[in-house]
Specification:
Recoverin, domain 1, 2 strands, two-stranded antiparallel ribbon, globular, mainly alpha
Length: 133
């Protein structure tokens, strides 16, 4: 390989994690539950939060392949994620109105990890928790 900057993109065989044989099939908890009350909080469970962080990071890697030195998610990177997650494309106008105005940095037209988390909360509230899984 020549000297330079390279981005390492993880790939998978498509195999999914399986539960141990004989274990009970438990649903994934999207939101944390308050101790003692069992009431759901507006905070993602640790497993879901890790997945959201990974999705954001992967979207950033894909975006950085096309641009240099970008720290926040822009339309192209977000739309790539959204298309895979929903099988629908979001226009740049919709992105600015529905995502940036509600969750992002309006002046910069970027979405940081905090804004991406907020979008995921809004998406789960609108489409139902199972839409995140």
């Amino acid at each position: 390989m020549d000297e330079g900057k390279y981005i390492i993109v993880p790939r998978t065989s498509g195999c999914s994690f399986g539960r141990p044989y004989g274990s009970e099939d438990e649903p994934i908890q999207v939101y944390r539950e308050a101790r003692g009350t069992g009431e759901k909080m507006r905070e993602f469970s640790a497993l879901v939060q890790l997945a959201i962080n990974d999705i954001f990071s992967f979207s950033m890697i894909k975006q950085q392949m096309n641009m240099e030195s970008v720290r926040d998610l822009e339309y192209e990177g977000f739309n790539s994620f959204y298309l895979k997650a929903t099988d629908n494309e979001m226009s740049e106008l919709e992105f600015n109105k529905e995502v940036i105005e509600k969750c992002g940095q309006v002046g910069n037209r970027h979405l940081n990890l905090r804004g991406f988390n907020e979008f995921c909360h809004i998406f789960a509230e609108r489409e139902g928790e199972k839409a995140l899984l």
